[in-house]
Structures are given as C-alpha cells and as structure tokens.
Amino acid sequence: MNRKDQEEPSRQKKKKAVKHGDYSVFFKKKRDKKAVLNKFPGKKKGPVPPEKKEDKVKRPRKYSKTTYTRGVDDGMVRLNKFIADAGICSRREADKLIEAGVIKVNGKVVTEMGVKVALSDKVQYDNRTLNPETLRYVLLNKPKGYITTTDDPFERKTVMQLVKKACRERIYPVGRLDRNTTGLLLITNDGDMAKRLMHPSHNIEKLYHVTLDQPLSKKDLQSIAEGIELDDGFIKVDGIGYDEIANDRKEVGVKIHSGRNRIVRRIFESLGYKVEKLDRVIFAGLTKKDLPRGRWRYLTEKEISFLKMH
Prior knowledge:
The protein contains 7 helices and 17 strands. The protein has about 300 residues and is an alpha+beta fold. Among the domains are: about 75-130, Structural Genomics Hypothetical 15.5 Kd Protein In mrcA-pckA Intergenic Region, Chain A (Roll); about 135-200 and about 295-310, Pseudouridine synthase I, catalytic domain, N-terminal subdomain (Alpha-Beta Plaits, 2-Layer Sandwich), CATH 3.30.70.580; about 205-285, 2-Layer Sandwich (Pseudouridine synthase), CATH 3.30.2350.10. The radius of gyration is 25 Å and the shape is elongated.
C-alpha cells in the first residue's frame, strides 16, 4: 500500500465529520492563548480556572408570543389593511375600492379614507364577507433557473410555482435571489416582518457559499474583507473565508447584510473573478438543514418568534 492510499481514509473521515448546514468552517479563527487570562484587578494574570457545573445556571430562552393572526392596535385596524389582509388586493388598490363605494362595513357603504374597523366587524366586498388572512411562513430552498417574482409576463419559471400547494393565502418572497442563484428564500404574507427583514438598518445576516472560476488570492480576500468601491458606492462584507473542506481556494463563504442588487456577484466581478455558483445557505438565522433543493417547509413557532424579535 502506497502513502497516498494510507492517507485517503483519514481524509474521508475528516470530510464526514462536517455536518450538513455547519458552515463555521468558512470562518475559523486561530486561538489566541493570551486571550484566556484573568481580568480581575489585584490578581496575577493566569489561566482562568474551569467553571464548575453547579455554578452554571440555565435560564430558559425567552421568545415573544407567537401569533398567526395579523397584529392590530387596540383591537382596530385600518380598513384598507383589513381588505389587503383578506387577500383581495394591495392596500393602494384597497383605497380605490373604498373610494369607489364598493366596500361595506356592517351593512353600510364606507368611502372615507383612514377608517378603522375591528376584527369582529362585518366587512363586505361584492357581497362577499372578508376575513383577515392567517399568516403563513414558508421557507424554500430555491433551485437554479427560477426567478423570484409572483408573476412573470414572459412565462418563465417562478419560485411561486414551487410553493403553490403551500397555502391558499397570497404569499410573497422576502427579498430576491437571481435566476441562477440557489438557496434559502422566505415566502410569507406577513408584510410587517418582510419589511423588517429587508431593511438594511436591521442588519439581517446572510451567508453565501461562493464558487469561483479561479482560486481567490489572499490579497483579494483581504481587499474584500476591508471593503471595496463599486459603481454604486463602498461595500464591506461582514465576514469572508476560504472553504477549508474544498481546499482549493475557489470556494469561499461570504457573510453580508447588504441587500443591494447582485452585490455578492459584483464584488467578485470587480476583481476579475467569475461566480460560477452562488448558494445562500443561511438567512436571518434560518438554515437549509434537512431541506433538499427545490423543496419547502413551514417555519416552526420557535423560528417565527425569533424572526419577530428582529
């Protein structure tokens, strides 16, 4: 048996040790031995003694109350929002229906803007009683070749075709993934949550697995980490590192919270690289573990509560 054959089993063992969905290997840091020191005044620096198990107090993790019904203020909600929540149309289109005098509240026609109604009120449109929608949260592992839109005039494949059996309510993608980009995409009818997750000020973290046409040099990796100037302004990623499993420097992990159009691809293209594959593996703490490509699942109550805390 030659030396290469002897080394092969150990390599395979190392590869199997990495669990699916664990992308911490992209951002390994060298351990700083000097960092583990006592910081108490009046004492000599030295190794911190191991913490006793009895000293650890496990505290239950707190989550906000999960609800599947749209939130209202003091039991009241604007009439246009009530209509939109019922899946009839958007808020702007609902205003037009109200102005047209085709909306009734408790048997009376309402044409005034800004009117609030209670969930117990009887709201009718075209002699049909409306009910606020149940909130739905669907996580899709988007495959290549699908565009992120609710409707396409050119009749191309859309992500909505993949989740058409998920629910009867009208749901919408949160953000956008390019046609050739794969990975996690949240689809929901919770407009308030969608706005929070898409707004840059909330710093929603996204992790992308990037495959390049050539090895990424250490110099360029450092440049991306420090930030680079693009046509639409300066951009700095939250983290970047080589994929140590691939070990060819063509595959890297990129953490970023910016929602600018094609931002990850443009970062590498500006330095002369071509992105051959781009996969979003983490979105707002959600992972694609146990979620095959092209499949979807409902979020758990725990996941929904976590997202509502953002």
